Amino acid sequence: MRLRRAFILESPCKTDLKILSSAAIPTIWVGYMNPVQPFCSIKGNVFCHTEKCLSTSLTVTGFLSRKHCLRLLGTMPSRYYVHRDDNDEDERKRKREGQEGYIYFHKSRGQHILTNPRVLDSIVRRAEIRPTDTVLEIGPGTGNLTLKLLEVAEKVFAVEIDKRMVEVLNNRVAECGLEDRLTVICKDALKMDFPPFDLIVANIPYGISSPLIAKLVFGAYPFRSATLLLQKEFARRLLANPGDSAFNRLAVNVKLVAEVEFVMDVSKKDFIPCPKVDSSVVKIWPKTKVPDVDMHEWWAFTRTCFNKKNKTLGATFKQKKKVVELLRRSQMMDSLKDHVATRYNYDDYDDKEEQEEQSDGEHCFPSPCSEKDLVSFKEMIAEVLKAGGFEAKRPSKLSIEELLHLLSLLNQAGIYFNDRTKGKDVSNEGFVASYSS
Ligand SMILES: C[S@@+](CC[C@H](N)C(=O)[O-])C[C@H]1O[C@@H](n2cnc3c(N)ncnc32)[C@H](O)[C@@H]1O
């Protein structure tokens, strides 16, 4: 049968629909075929990237029932999917929300559904799931990935913040008779303790990538690996090595405790609605042997060094604000308690950036340490940097081993980065929060 106009939708499986694409269509867009309803009546709600295919005819060898299609799609056919900004005031769209059959994808929640079955299969294959594994999925959405995970894992915990998605997911999994192996937790993944799991496999909302990865690799969760779909640029940063322009604080912190492996790039066209950015899949392997370092001290140290990652360490540790903070944190101020508060005069400080930082009010002193103590503390840091050969080096170019060495030299000299006046914080909450926007 030759169709002049095809109703193009997303579906996990082209063979199920028995659609053969013409050579002109590089990606096969398949889905719910409704030969009765004329295409033009639904055109308004179809996403633009599907429209590319409209003029191309498809050779169709069979149709699926609407019910079967809905099961494959997990929810309504895409004419019901509307992507709406949270500040979109369109009354008609608002009215439709809540009506049966309509589901809105919210940008603020990163709701971009991965629909390419080949990509879904590759993610599951590269995750190397064993039949006895419990998998944690963050942000299952309508369940395209969840269903694939349920085919191979013993159990899946899916954490989803959006109640509407949870409903769709539960219905879809129940229709496949797999509900016994799925536990859906309707919570914010950043604000909960995860149940025990062996692996994480997820297409996460990109807005929470940093805090979520920090939570996973520094949380008390022993897991084999995390296979994650991330924004491409973000993945490049995680994969970056010292000296690469993308190497940053998160990369250095993750590399301390985990190995990161590139798996594959994923085009934005493989999502509905189509996001603005491309994606990549990476696999994170927690290291079995982690360097013996106080993590809170390490996090505070990398925060200080990577704040201006391309500045030389000599210049970074000359900044008055940094030195005063370090002096306070290193508990070297006991002898200075009686000093009269001093507001520093920055006129003699030839560092524009730092002056700007001061001007936001947050970092204004008075501080109870004297200029004399500050100068000698500064000299002490400079000596440590010089002795270790770090004065002219830039944090962005240092290996983990070099950074660990520098930290131990500074600590040996009594210079600390974590606030030792506050007592020991054993949780990683502050650290995870520091990556939240
Ligand atoms: C990129 S979509 C992925 C959907 C699905 N996994 C897929 O591949 O098609 C991200 C999902 O994460 C959910 N989400 C967003 N923020 C979340 C959070 N803080 N905790 C848990 N889920 C969240 C969204 O509602 C959305 O369903």
Automatic annotation (TrEMBL):
Region (Disordered): 347-367
Classification via CDD domains: AdoMet_MTases
Residues involved in S-adenosyl-L-methionine binding: 112, 114, 139, 160, 188, 203
Record-level GO cellular component terms: mitochondrion
Domain Ribosomal RNA adenine methylase transferase N-terminal: 119-288
EC number: 2.1.1.-
InterPro entries, per database record: KsgA/Erm, rRNA_Ade_Mease_Trfase_CS, rRNA_Ade_methylase_Trfase_N, rRNA_adenine_dimethylase, SAM-dependent_MTases_sf
GO molecular function, one term: rRNA (adenine-N6,N6-)-dimethyltransferase activity
A Pfam family reported for this protein in Swiss-Prot or TrEMBL: RrnaAD
BP GO terms, sorted: rRNA methylation
Keyword field contains tRNA-binding: no
EC category name: transferase
Compositionally biased spans, kind Acidic residues: 347-359
Sorted UniProt keywords: Methyltransferase, RNA-binding, rRNA processing, S-adenosyl-L-methionine, Transferase
NCBIfam families registered for this protein in UniProt: ksgA
Family: Belongs to the class I-like SAM-binding methyltransferase superfamily. rRNA adenine N(6)-methyltransferase family.
Protein name: rRNA adenine N(6)-methyltransferase
Organism: Nelumbo nucifera
